[in-house]
Amino acid sequence: xxxxxxxxxxxxxxxxxxxxxxxxxxxxxxxxxxxxxxxxxxxxxxxxxxxxxxxxxxxxxxxxxxxxxxx
Length: 71
Hints:
The chain is mainly α.
């Protein structure tokens, strides 16, 4: 697997926990109810999955140019 895809997979949990903490902090201190902001977690998860798939697609493309021919 591509290193970038592995990195994105490894960061998924911590980034979601940070986003969750930010939303709970906004609920507690800014008065923005969590019931209205929880979809942000879905958006963050979707963006992370998109980046992971982009990294995987980039790693699966064959090399072109002089590097592919050893020159």
